[in-house]
Amino acid sequence: MSNKKYHFLGKDFPRKDGIARVTGREVYPSDIYLTGMLHGRILRSPYPHARIKSIDFSEALSLGAVCLSFKNTPQKHFNLRQVSVPRATYKDWQVLTDHMRQVGDPFGAVAAETEELAARAAGAVKVEWEMLPSYMTIEQALAARKDLIHEKVYLEDREITIKSNIACTREVAEGDVDKGFKEADVIVENEFSTPRVYHCQLEPRSCVCRPEPDGGITLWPTTQALHNTRILIGDIFDIPLNKLNVVRITGGGHFGSGIHTNPVVLITVALALKSGKPVRIVQSREEDMYDHCRYPSRYTLKIGAKKDGTLVAGEMKASVDIGSHHIQALSYLGVLAGWWHSLYRMPNLKYEGVAVYTNKVPTCAMQGYGAPQVTFGVETTMNMLAERLGIDPIEIRIKNYVGLGEIFWGQGPTVRSLIHSDGVKELLHRGAELIGWKDRPDPKTQTGRFRKGIGMARGFHTSGTGAPVPGEVKDFTTAQVKVNEDGSIDILTALMDHGGGTLDAAAKLVAEEFGVPFEKVGISPADTRSTGYDVCTHATRGVYCGGGAVLEVAREAKKVLLEYASRILDAPVGSLKTKPDFKLGQGIIYVEGMPEKHITLAKAAQTAMNKDWGTAIAAGSIRKVNCPPAYTTYFVEVEVDMQTGRVEIKRVAAGSDAGVVINPTLARGQLHGGFYRGAGYALVEDTQYDEKTGNLRCKGLLTNYKMLGPEDLPDPEDFQVFFADTYEPTGPMGAKGIGEAALNPVPAAIALAIQNATGIYFTRLPILPETILKAVKEGRDHV
Amino acid sequence: MRIPIVLKVNGKEHSIEVKPNEILLNVLRDKLHLIGVKYGCGIGECGACTVILNGRAILSCQTLAVSAAGREITTIEGLVPEGNKELHPLQEAFIEEGAVQCGFCTPGMILSAKALVDKNPDPSNSAIKEAIRGNLCRCTGYINIIKAIKTGAEKIRERSKR
User: Fold this and answer.
1) Cβ separation of A252 and B40 shorter than 8 Å?
2) What interface predicted TM-score (ipTM) does this complex get?
3) CB contact (8 A) between residue A499 and residue B106
4) Which residues in chain B touch residue A14, judged by CB atoms under 8 angstroms apart?
5) Which residue does chain B place closest to A27, by CA atoms?
6) Chain-chain contact of B76 with A255 (C-beta, under 8 angstroms)
7) What angle do CA A669, A474, A664 make, to 5 degrees?
């Protein structure tokens, strides 16, 4: 950690959007009501795989509804996710089609003056169907030779013929894996699988669209990516971008479900363009559950180690059931290899991944983007290796982890960068002490109904996707910073804050840089017409890449301000410093060594205005050339009821290496939330299907889907969070990311705690009570 | 068919006409423009639409507007009397303790908390967990929400001493 004393970083301030959110005044897309607005309803397939022979809208039309089908929408192919460069983006999606690929696939929409009328109109639409064979598993999909889910997709302008429902494949190899395994003293091989978790962001995906008099549109969508939404819609509907405004509006949770432009946004736009009126669509919860989910995974993992615990070779074969569409499975296959390779040094490695279409809900990013999936198997394997070799699980991790001074490529093989800060050992040692690692039970000697277990896992996430050489993923942020005439500062950027405090962090960085009180820095409302491109708030990039860009632009604006101050104070720019004066509630600029020679920011800005020198303002697009790993460790204590299979989480010690921590309370909140979602992932959450009907077994009901509630989590006193004392030299004032790292190791830590209690390694998530009971009954040590 | 009713919301009486099947959630949002009452599922599963009805936290999506006629309804907008610039101690505590992330569950969560602390001024962890189990929060993992409800309750107790 740097010795530098910060005024604002590392201290808690009330979040800037706090008052709006606790008073009910925060406006979300589903809260936008416009004069003359129509309410839309999407028409969706009740069948998993079918073609529409005919649609009869006559009754809906007679009710006065505006009706839309695939016959009225552009037929262009695209990918909803615009984060990767075109050469790595498969295009299989259309606004609407007659080919239904899952239950819930949209084929049309209606809009009417009230929600009730829209619902009646939707119910009055008659459709004649041609049924097609459905493929609900990877095996069924791979065996298909005709009636494929997609016949042709596109990569740039190239047409690609799909075979056996394979969406794409990816291979990565380093070193000589056969030679590596020959050198191994111990080899562990298992198959792991992880479930199709539903994001369950509290606000269903929604959109409001208003056609404008100039032929353009204004949009209020649920999205994490303002500019990508704008560019995609402009392209599909042929709207000039300078007439297409996407407004930044708070979303009621995303967790990755808004990195891609949600289909509801496209359909709302199509209805608004057809009707010429503002249209609002708020999806029902059931519709939302048929709209998106986390990538599941199934993979074999083989790792070989020497007697001393050094890893020598690894092989992974992954197959991913991606559902009805491609929301960038190619990059997902790449990061599966990346997370694995960047957790532990693996000199010889072979990876094969295949993404397969099925007639299920399309899969997309969700907190971790493959990292929790892979970390679960890798961390479990590390414990198995440690057990076979008689090494402490912490020691084998310290021996092999990818840390300081090493190259890593967590975001896939094309995004490689060097590690400059590393708090892993500190996290492991402090976590071990807090949980009582030395005194953890021996699973072999435990008896009785209630058995305690302590588990540990580590992981990381990249802080963004920056690298020295641009790869397949776009990563930069545009910002503008200006000093106002009262000494306050405005930050303008399309960067988004999903609730973690990203924009507050950016404001703190600017306050620190200018030496002005935090309250003096404001975040301007943003939309795509007033801001430059920002790729999206995803990949744990908000603070490091986004905040980093804002800080660099602030430094440019400060240069302009100091030049004005230099004229006023008659002192060279190089002698000028800034600091906050809390009594004045202002920032001041002073001559170093001559504190009496000073001026407030307000006075400097006013003088510059009155003398016609200009405004202290700067704008720029900044790309970070690193994506440092934000490391986390979780130590978890559970109690397993051997008679019911119920797992109770007793205590958690969560450690995070986020570099310099900017918002301490909010950062701790990231770990609480990451743990909660990770624990649900480990223990209960999954979307299962009725293979005959293609319906979700939970029928779109949250109570049937099952998530953990407050009563399933430890008390606040039993949940400790601590931070490593590190400084990231490439980061904004030493900071790196935290968000997704807060979840990545959690499922593994819980599975290993259950192993410590029961003596059974579980390789499939979620670990349900009945799975535990069955394994206990059968006397298994591995299931 | 439309039924004339008087809805008493946040201390104000509103004479409106509703259909017999209209739910309170839609009336509060669409007719009275109280957007702090959130739509998260509409079928009583998430708690985002929680309001206080005669002192009890209830789901406005599971309540017919006609059945709420003449009863005292409090939404997040009415937690502090109009014109009062200060926040309610629970609102303050939610900000201080980092219990607010995306904020979509926050209004309902605060109202469930208020209904609890009005009856139980010093609630235990388990009493808080019981009171908020119908309010889904996907961001926070509930830890800071539990802390905030304790802190808010403490603030209320201290203020009542003064």
Assistant:
1) yes
2) 0.98
3) no
4) 95-96
5) B35
6) no
7) 15
Residues of B in contact with A634 (CB under 8 A): none
- Chain A residue whose CA is closest to B126: A711
**Does the CB of B153 have a partner CB in chain A at under 8 Å?**
no
Measure B92 CA to nearest chain A CA, in Å.
Answer: 8
Yes or no, beta carbons of A284 and B75 under 8 Å apart: no
Residue B46 contacts A, CB cutoff 8 Å: yes
Beta strand segments in B32-152, E: 50-53, 56-59, 72-74
| Angle separating helix axes B125-132 and B106-119, nearest 10 degrees | 130
**A with B: how many residue pairs have Cβ under 8 Å apart?**
175
Angle at A411 between CA A410 and CA A413, to 5 degrees: 85
| Rounded alpha-carbon distances, angstroms, from residue A701 to A270, A608, A740 | 29, 60, 26
Asked if B40 lies within 8 A of A20 by C-beta distance, the reply is no
Looking up tokens 């050992």 gives A425
Among A22, A203, A702, beta carbon nearest to B45? A702
Say if domain B89-161 classifies as CATH 3.30.2320.30: no
Count of C-beta atoms within a 10 Å radius of residue A721 = 20
Q: What is the pLDDT of residue A469?
A: 86
Rounded distance, CA A216 to CA A235, Å? 13
Chain A residue numbers with beta carbons less than 8 Å from the beta carbon of B97 are 665
> Which residue of chain B comes nearest to A497, CA vs CA?
B102
CA–CA distance, A510 with A550 (Å, rounded to integer): 8
Alpha carbon distance A95, A74 (integer Å): 7
Do A634 and A711 form a contact (C-beta atoms < 8 A)?
Answer: no
Domain boundaries, chain B: 3-78, 89-161
Q: Angle at CA A434, nearest 5°, toward A430 and A435?
A: 120
Domains and CATH numbers, chain A: 18-25+476-622 (3.30.365.10), 32-132+202-253+258-289 (3.90.1170.50), 293-468+626-777 (3.30.365.10)
B89-161 and B3-78 share a CATH fold: no
Query: Which tens digits make up the pLDDT trace of A642-662?
Result: 999 999 999 999 999 999 999
Decide if A675 contacts A652 (C-beta within 8 A): yes
Q: Which CATH class is domain B3-78?
A: alpha beta
Provide the whole-model pTM: 0.98
Nearest to A664 by CA among A519, A501, A526: A501
Kindly list the residues from chain B whose CB atom is less than 8 angstroms away from the CB atom of residue A17.
Answer: 103
pLDDT tens for the 162 residues of chain B, in order = 899 999 999 999 999 999 999 999 999 999 999 999 999 999 999 999 999 999 999 999 999 999 999 999 999 999 998 788 899 999 999 999 999 999 999 999 999 999 999 999 999 999 999 999 999 999 999 999 999 999 999 999 999 987
Locate the chain A residue with the closest alpha carbon to B89. Answer: A22
Q: Does B143 contact chain A (CB < 8 Å)?
A: yes
Specify whether the CB–CB gap between A108 and A70 falls below 8 A. Answer: yes
In chain A the first and final C-alpha atoms are separated, in Å, by 43
pLDDT in tens, A758-772: 999 999 999 999 999
Q: Is it the case that residue A3 has pLDDT exceeding 50?
A: no
Q: Are the Cβ atoms of A14 and B95 closer than 8 angstroms?
A: yes
Residue A670: name the closest of A490, A543, A517 by CA.
A543
List chain B residues with CB under 8 Å of A713: 141-143
Q: How far is B6 from chain A (nearest CA, A)?
A: 23
Interchain CB distance below 8 Å, A24 and B107: yes
Least CB-CB distance to A673: which of B103, B126, B139? Answer: B139
In tens, the pLDDT along A398-448 reads 999 999 999 998 888 888 889 999 999 999 999 999 999 999 999 999 999
